[in-house]
Amino acid sequence: MDLFFATCSRHDITPIKNLRYKNVLSSYFYYRKGAYREYYLKNKHLYDNFFMDSGAFSFHNLKVDIDIDEYIDTIKKDNIDNYSVLDVIGNPKATQENYLYMKSKGLDPVPCFHINTDVDYLDFYLEECNKLAIGGMVQAQNIHPNLKKIWSKIWSKNKTMKVHGFGVSSPGVAVGYPWHSIDSSSFASITKFARASAWDKETKNFKVINSFDLLKTYTLAKEKQAEERKTLGGVVYTFLLYWQMEQYNQMIDWVNKEQENKNWDILTAQMTIF
C-alpha cells in the first residue's frame, strides 16, 4: 500500500521530497492556483508519484463552479499521469457521465465511488475499469459497515482492482482493507492546531502530543536555522510537517507488514451478512 500526502500549498509539499515515500496528492481546487502549480512543475522530478484529485469536495462546500473542460486541459497540459474523475457530490449518475466524457477526450481517469452510494453503481466500474477510488469517508458515519459492503462486491467480482481510499487517516481503516493506496491530510494538524500525532508501535495507533512539547525535545530546527540562515518560523514549520509525515509513513510500514500474505477472501464471506 502506498500513502499519498494530500497537500494544498507549496509549503505542505516541500518536506515530502525528503521523506522515504515521496507521494503527493493535490486537489485541483488548490493546484490551479499559481504558486502551487508552478512549484510542482519545476520540482516534479523530486517526487515518486503525483495524484490529482478533482477537488469536487472543496468546490462543492465553497459553492464554487468547476469547469470540467478546464480540468481536462490542465491534466493534458501538465502531463498529469494519475488523476480522478470529476465526481459530482451526491449524484453517482452525473459522476459516471463525467467519467465517460473524460474518456471521450482521451483521458483515463480513476473513477470515484462515494461511500454512501448504492453499491449497484459499482457494477459499471467493476466491469469497465481496473482502478477505483472510494471517497466521502472524511465526514461519513458507519464507515466500516459501508466499506464492508463495497469491498465485498469488489472482491467477489474483480480481485485485481486497484483501489485508492480518499481521506484515510485511521489505522483501523487502512489496515482493514486491501487498498492499493490511500491519502491523508491529517498531518497538517501539527501546524494548524499545534496537535502532533506520534505513531505508537505498542498500541498500533497514534498518540496525540502538543506540537510545542515536541519542539522542546528537538534541536534540529535551530541547527537548520544556523546552517541555512533562514528565519526560525519557516524552519520550524517545515520540520514539524516532516516529522509528522514520517509518523504516518511508520503507520504505513506497520499496515504493509500486517497485510503480508493476508487472505482477503473473508471480504466475500461478509456478503451474506448484508
Salient structural properties:
alpha/beta; 14 helices; globular
What is the helix tally? Answer: 14
Structural class: alpha/beta
**Helix amount:** 40-55%
Radius of gyration: 19 Å
Query: What order do the strands of the largest sheet run in, or round the barrel if closed?
Result: 4-3-2-1-8-7-6-5
Shape: globular
CATH architecture: Alpha-Beta Barrel
The CATH homologous superfamily is named Queuine tRNA-ribosyltransferase-like
Describe the structure.
There is one protein chain. With 274 residues, the chain is α/β, with parallel strands linked by helices. Helices cover 45% and strands 17% of the residues. The protein has one domain (2-209, 246-273): Alpha-Beta Barrel (TIM Barrel). The strands form 2 sheets. The chain has an 8-stranded parallel beta sheet with strand order 4-3-2-1-8-7-6-5. A two-stranded antiparallel sheet has the order 9-10.
